[in-house]
Design a protein that fits this description.
This protein is mainly alpha-helical and 793 residues long. The protein contains 27 helices and eleven strands.
C-alpha cells in the first residue's frame, strides 16, 4: 500500500497500514510489491466497480434512458475524461500504486483539462471536434518515450479488496437514494413536470454549444454572469459522446460525478489518517450519511443536490484539491503537481463562488499555525493563499453569478423555517430588514428563547460533523497543519451561513460545501482515536458497528418520545417542549452510557482506550445512518405553518415547469428543425398560466427544452432581475417582443428582426392573446394544442 505521509512534527501517532488483504488477527498483512498483478486478482478487484456500474445502468434504464446513450456516456467518461486525466496526474503528481486512487485524482484532473480544451476549441470555433483533445493527450503519452511508463503501474501496491467493496457500496447506496430526485423529470418530447432550475441549466448547456463565453439564453445578446463551468462539462459530454443535451442534463451527468466524489473523499481521508479503512468510511459519510435528524424541525445538512449541477460538480474538485493541499502542508513536495493543484483551484473558482473563500480561510489558518510553530511549510501554505487570492476576485468578476441582494444579516436562515413565521407572525423578509430577522429583532424573553431553539436546528442536524473538532485540543491534531486547514475551511462555511443573507438562500451553499469536508475530518478523528496498541481489525470493526448501532438507536428512541406539535399556529411552550424532550433523552442516554461503560471497562480490561472511538462512531456514523435510512423530511411541527399577521406573506412554493404533451411536442420541433444559432421570440414569460403582474417569470421552455436562444423568455434568473416575480428589467425588449404577437405588422416584425436577429416565433395562446394576423407575416411550421411555431417570412 502506498505511504500516506504524516508530518513528523505533528507527532500524530497515526500509523500507515500495510498493503495486502485482511487477515484474521490484524487489519492488514504486508505484501511484497510485484510488477505484475495476476489476471484473476484483476477480475476479482473489478467486481465491486462492475456492481456499481450495473446498478447505475439499471437505474438509468428504469428512468427511460436509451441504452446507447448510457454506453456512449460511459465511454466518454472512461476515455474522454478519466484516461487523459490519469496520464497527466501520474506525470505530475505521481502514482499511488493502485488504480482507484490514481483514477480519483485523475478524474478531477481530467475535468480541469476538459475546461481548458473546451475554451480553446470554442474560441477556434471547433466545438464539434472536441473529441480530438483526449486523443491528442493519449498520442502524446504514446509518442514521447519518457511518458510511456505512465500507462501502467510499474510497482503495484494494491488496496485491500474490502476498500473497493466499501467505496463501491457507498456509490450504489447513493445511486439508490438520489435516483428518484435526479431522474424525476421526463425525457423530451414527453410532457410533464420539470424543475425550472433543471430546465434553466439545460438552456445554458445548449448555449455553450454555440457561443463562448455564453450569452443569457433567455435574453439574447446579454453576457451570462454565472458560474457555468459545470455546464461546460455537460456541453462537452454532449459534444464528445453524442448523447443529446437533454439526456445528459436530465439523466447522465450526476452519477459519475457522485462516484468521483466518493473516490476523492476516500483519498482525502486516507491522506489525513494514513489508514486504508478510513477511505470506505469517508465515502459513506460524504455521499450517503448526511446529518442527524434529532429535533422536530429539519436543519440544513444536505450535500447532494441533483437540481444544482454546480454544487455536485465542485465537490470532487474541492476534495481533490484538498488532498494535494494536505500533502504540501505536511512537507511533501508537489513539484509539477503544483500545476494540477492550480488547475483544480481554477476549476473550483469557476464552478461555484463558495469554494474559494473556504479554501482561502483554510489555507490562511494553516499558514498561521505553521508560522506559530516556526515550521518552513508556512511558505507552501502562503503559496496556496496567494493562488486563491488571485483567483477569487477574478472569479467574482467573471463567473460569480448574481450576488444582488446579498447583505450581512445574522441568522437569516430562519426565514426559511416555517416555525419562525408561525411563532412570530413575521412575514417573509429574506436579505431585508434589520441586523436580526424581523421577528427576533426586539430582544424580548420570548424572542431570545425562540432564537435559541432555532439556532439548535442546524447545530443538532450537524452534531456529528461539529463535535469531532473538539479533538483539535489534542496534541495529535493541534500540531498538524492539515487539521487547521480543514478547521478553517469548515468554520468559514458556518460563519458565512450564519451571517450572510441572500434572497434565494444561497448562503446555504457555503455550509453544503463545508459539510463533506467536515465529514472527512470526523472520520480522521475517529481513526486517530483508535488506540495505538490496536492489533485486531475485528475489534475495530466491532467497536465501530457497536457505536453506529448505539447512535442510531438513541436517535430513533429520541424521535419516538418527541411529542408532535399539531396545528399551523403552535405555541412557543409546545415548540420548546418538542425541542427539549429529545435533547433531554440524549443527555440521559449519555449519563447512562457513561456509567455502563465505566462498569464494563473494569470487568473487560481490553476496552480501555476505546471509549472515544465508541462515542465518535455513534456521532459520526450512527446518527447520520439513521437519517439516511429514514430521510429528513420528518418535521414534527407542521410544515405548512402560516404567519399570524404578515406585512409580506410567505410566498407559495413554485410547483415547477409543467409542460403539456402538446407544448413538449412543439419544443421538440424547435430543437430538431431550427438552426442551432437561431433566435426565437415567444410570448411565454410566466412559468404557468397567462401573463399577469408578479407572476414568477421562470418560463424556460424554448431556451431549455427547445434549445434555442430567445429574444426574451423568463427573466427571473437574469442578473438584472431583483426577484422571479419582479417586473421585467428589459421593458423596451419586452414591448418589441410582445408586439409581434398582439399587434403584428411589417414594422413590428422588422424591428424585432433588426434589433435581435429573430427568425422564429413560438406563440402560446395559453400565455396571452395571439393575433390572427400573425400568419400574414410568418409561416406556421408546426402546431400542437395552444402552441404554434412560426418562421418569419
Amino acid at each position: 500500500m502506498p505511504s500516506y505521509p504524516v508530518d513528523p512534527a505533528s507527532d500524530s501517532g497515526l500509523r500507515v497500514g500495510g498493503s495486502g488483504v485482511d487477515d484474521s488477527d490484524g487489519v492488514t498483512a504486508p505484501s511484497q510489491p510485484s510488477s505484475r498483478v495476476p489476471p484473476m486478482r484483476t477480475v476479482v478487484c473489478a467486481l465491486p466497480w462492475l456492481l456499481a456500474l450495473g446498478v447505475a445502468t439499471v437505474a438509468l434504464l428504469q428512468a427511460g434512458t436509451p441504452a446507447l446513450d448510457i454506453a456512449r456516456y460511459t465511454a466518454y467518461w472512461c476515455f474522454g475524461v478519466t484516461l487523459p486525466g490519469v496520464l497527466l496526474a501520474r506525470a505530475t503528481v505521481g502514482t499511488r500504486g493502485n488504480w482507484p486512487e490514481d483514477i480519483a485524482i485523475g478524474a478531477v484532473t481530467g475535468l480541469t483539462l476538459e475546461l481548458g480544451c473546451f475554451a480553446l476549441w470554442s474560441v477556434l470555433g471547433r466545438q464539434q471536434q472536441l473529441w480530438l483533445w483526449p486523443l491528442i493527450v493519449a498520442l502524446i503519452f504514446v509518442s514521447v518515450p519518457r511518458l510511456r511508463r505512465h500507462w501502467r503501474i510499474s510497482s503495484p501496491e494494491p488496496l485491500p479488496l474490502l476498500w473497493s467493496w466499501g467505496v463501491a457500496s457507498a456509490i450504489v447506496a447513493c445511486t439508490l437514494l438520489v435516483r428518484q430526485r435526479a431522474f424525476a423529470p421526463p425525457l423530451p418530447p414527453a410532457g410533464g413536470l420539470y424543475d425550472q432550475d433543471v430546465v434553466w441549466h439545460l438552456s445554458i448547456v445548449h448555449e455553450l454549444t454555440r457561443s463562448f463565453p455564453p450569452q443569457v439564453p433567455q435574453v439574447a445578446g446579454e453576457l451570462l454572469r454565472y458560474h457555468w463551468f459545470s455546464h461546460v462539462h455537460m456541453a462537452a459530454a454532449h459534444l464528445v459522446s453524442g448523447a443529446p443535451e437533454a439526456t445528459v442534463v436530465l439523466r447522465l451527468w450526476i452519477l459519475p460525478l457522485l462516484a468521483v466524489t466518493a473516490l476523492t473523499g476516500a483519498c482525502l481521508a486516507m491522506e489525513l489518517s494514513g489508514r486504508w479503512w478510513s477511505g470506505p468510511i469517508a465515502a459513506w459519510c460524504v455521499i450517503v450519511l448526511t446529518g442527524t435528524s434529532l429535533l422536530p424541525v429539519v436543519g440544513e445538512a444536505g450535500v447532494i443536490f441533483p437540481t444544482s449541477p454546480s454544487e455536485v460538480y465542485v465537490l470532487p474538485i474541492v476534495l481533490g484539491a484538498a488532498t494535494l493541499i494536505v500533502r504540501t502542508l505536511r512537507g511533501v513536495s508537489l513539484r509539477a503537481g503544483w500545476a494540477v493543484l492550480a488547475l483544480l483551484l481554477v476549476a473550483a473558482a469557476g464552478a461555484k463562488p463558495n469554494a474559494m473563500p473556504l479554501v482561502l480561510a483554510g489555507a490562511a489558518l494553516a499558514c498561521l499555525s505553521l508560522m506559530v510553530q516556526r515550521r518552513r511549510q508556512w511558505l507552501t501554505a502562503l503559496a496556496v493563499v496567494a493562488i486563491v487570492a488571485v483567483l477569487l476576485p477574478v472569479s467574482l468578476l467573471a463567473v460569480a453569478g448574481n450576488v444582488t441582494g446579498s447583505s450581512i444579516r445574522l441568522f437569516d436562515y430562519v426565514e426559511w423555517i416555517p416555525l419562525y413565521h408561525s411563532l412570530t407572525g413575521a412575514g417573509f423578509h429574506p436579505a431585508a430588514g434589520p441586523l436580526l430577522p424581523v421577528g427576533l429583532y426586539h430582544l424580548s424573553v420570548r424572542s431570545l428563547v425562540l432564537l435559541v431553539i432555532l439556532l439548535m436546528v442546524p447545530l443538532a442536524q450537524n452534531v456529528g460533523r461539529l463535535v469531532p473538532f473538539a479533538w483539535l485540543g489534542s496534541k495529535r491534531l493541534r500540531t498538524d497543519p492539515a487539521a487547521w486547514f480543514i478547521s478553517g475551511f469548515v468554520f468559514a462555511g458556518w460563519v458565512v451561513y450564519l451571517v450572510l443573507s441572500h434572497p434565494s438562500y444561497s448562503q446555504a451553499y457555503f455550509l453544503r460545501l463545508a459539510n463533506p469536508v467536515a465529514s472527512v475530518f470526523g472520520v480522521w478523528v475517529l481513526v486517530a482515536a483508535v488506540p495505538a496498541t490496536m492489533e485486531s481489525g475485528r475489534r475495530v470493526a466491532a467497536v465501530l458497528a457497536g457505536g453506529t448501532l448505539i447512535g442510531a438507536g438513541v436517535v430513533v428512541v429520541a424521535r419516538a418520545v418527541t411529542p408532535t406539535v399539531p396545528g399551523n399556529t403552535p405555541s412557543l411552550a409546545a415548540a420548546v417542549v418538542s425541542f427539549l424532550v429529545p435533547l433531554a433523552f440524549v443527555c440521559v442516554a449519555i449519563v447512562v452510557g457513561r456509567l455502563a461503560w465505566a462498569l464494563t471497562r473494569r470487568r473487560v480490561p481490553g476496552l480501555r482506550g476505546w471509549g472515544s472511538v465508541l462515542v465518535l462512531a455513534a456521532l459520526v456514523l450512527g446518527g447520520p445512518a439513521e437519517g439516511a435510512l429514514h430521510g429528513f423530511d420528518r418535521d414534527r411541527i407542521s410544515l405548512d405553518a402560516k404567519p399570524l399577521a404578515a406585512e409580506v406573506p410567505t410566498p407559495p412554493p413554485i410547483e415547477g415547469l409543467r409542460i403539456s404533451p402538446a407544448a413538449a411536442a412543439a419544443m421538440s420541433c424547435v430543437n430538431l428543425h431550427t438552426p442551432n444559432d437561431a433566435v426565437v421570440a415567444t410570448n411565454r414569460h410566466c412559468v404557468t398560466g397567462r401573463e399577469r403582474p408578479s407572476c414568477p417569470s421562470l418560463a424556460f421552455w424554448v431556451s431549455g427544452l427547445g434549445g434555442r436562444r430567445t429574444v426574451l423568455e423568463g427573466w427571473g434568473y437574469s442578473s438584472q432581475a431583483k426577484s422571479a416575480g419582479a417586473p421585467t428589467p428589459f421593458p423596451e425588449r419586452l414591448a418589441v417582443n410582445d408586439a409581434v404577437f398582439t399587434d403584428p405588422s411589417a414594422q413590428t416584425i422588422e424591428r424585432l428582426r433588426q434589433l435581435y436577429d429573430a427568425s422564429w416565433l413560438v406563440a402560446d395562446k395559453s400565455a396571452g392573446p395571439v393575433s390572427s394576423r400573425l400568419a400574414r407575416f410568418a409561416v406556421p411550421m408546426f402546431s400542437s394544442g395552444a402552441v404554434t411555431v412560426y418562421e418569419l417570412r
